[in-house]
Design goal:
alpha+beta, SH3 type barrels, Alpha-Beta Plaits, 12 helices, 8 strands, 59% helix
């Protein structure tokens, strides 16, 4: 028959510590609400501090009661039955809360930096640089914090304490244990750190990769998403950007020089064609006024190749300007000099010899 006496004795022994713990949790809750109001009010004029304060509200509300419980359990008689298990669980929860708080603080600060540098402005080169660096560094730092938190939690468990110590001591040990299976993950982490520091690409950069023209839409911890011109998404691993060549059209500036080529007959005068180019550039809102130049770049067997160099503020405007110039040139030739469009000539040598 079940004897409830030992259970009742244990509950009576825990009654006072549990009462003290409940009062401590209530005091911690009161301290959280008062402290949260004071901190938010003090950080109202500091965007970064306010963002961090808002980000850590949830983990801070969990952390303060856990700290109060840890203090209570530390002052309880060590002979109390089950105290060791309660202390261990509280320590694990406390480490998890601290890890959560630190990760949220880093993300909150990173979001504040991103919000302070919007890319929706005309000259967004500096903003794109800051946003790219911030996103990559935030992901790296939060990954390190999470790894350290997991290791510390494992170290509180005697059976796996050595695993936690090894995890915390050296990431090289993990690499050796994981072997070649972890190599892509570690390679992407290192590549992400390189991209964050050296910045060969940034958010909103215009690139040509794998023969596709697109814009850098997202940089994650494992891959980069490129939005192709027709709204497709090209997903490229991080290692690609540090190992293979690609074109970045906005590395230093968004300004671009576009080319337009056309074939004309040898008899076509160049001055009217240059004037038509100048009118086409001046009549386009996409031309930035830097360069409008026409040159004969090739003299073939049947026709001349004429090339125009025109400039625009960014890649999209450069594309539209090139199309506009090409259309205006063709329209000008068809209207004013249709006889000088490229044509294939055939000569009858026999008829020419028979002529008197």
């Amino acid at each position: 028959m079940f004897d409830p006496t030992p259970l009742l004795d244990a509950l009576l022994t825990w009654a006072r510590p549990l009462l003290v713990a409940a009062l401590s949790v209530l005091l911690a809750e009161a301290a959280y609400f008062i402290g949260a109001r004071l901190v938010l009010r003090a950080a109202a004029d500091l965007p970064a501090a306010a963002a961090v304060a808002r980000a850590i509200r949830a983990p801070a509300r969990l952390l303060l009661p856990l700290l109060a419980l840890a203090v209570v359990w530390h002052g309880v008689d060590a002979a109390l039955p089950g105290l060791a298990m309660v202390q261990r669980l509280t320590s694990m929860a406390l480490i998890a809360a601290v890890t959560w708080l630190l990760m949220r603080a880093v993300r909150g600060y990173g979001q504040a930096v991103i919000d302070a540098h919007p890319v929706g402005v005309a000259d967004n080169l500096e903003a794109r640089r800051v946003q790219t660096q911030t996103r990559v560094l935030v992901r790296t730092v939060t990954s390190v914090i999470a790894l350290a938190g997991i290791a510390l939690v494992l170290m509180t468990i005697p059976a796996v304490r050595q695993v936690g110590a090894s995890l915390l001591a050296s990431a090289g040990v993990i690499g050796l244990v994981a072997g070649f299976a972890a190599r892509p993950v570690l390679g992407n982490m290192i590549a992400g750190l390189q991209i964050g520091l050296t910045q060969p690409i940034r958010i909103d950069d215009v690139v040509i990769v794998e023969g596709e023209w697109g814009v850098i839409e997202e940089i994650t911890g494992a891959y980069v998403v490129v939005r192709v011109w027709d709204d497709r998404r090209l997903v490229v691993p991080l290692q690609y950007w540090v190992e293979k060549p690609f074109q970045n059209w906005t590395r230093k500036s968004a300004q671009l020089t576009g080319t337009v080529t056309m074939w004309v007959d040898y008899r076509m005068p160049m001055a009217p064609l240059r004037a038509a180019l100048q009118r086409a550039c001046e009549g386009s809102k996409d031309w930035d006024g830097r360069l409008c130049l026409m040159q004969v770049t090739e003299a073939g067997e049947r026709a001349l190749q004429v090339r125009a160099l025109v400039t625009a503020a960014d890649a999209g405007k450069a594309w539209d300007l090139r199309c506009h110039v090409r259309e205006q040139w063709v329209d000008f030739m068809q209207r004013e000099y249709p006889q000088f469009l490229p044509r294939l000539r055939l000569e009858d040598s026999g008829a020419a010899q028979a002529a008197p």
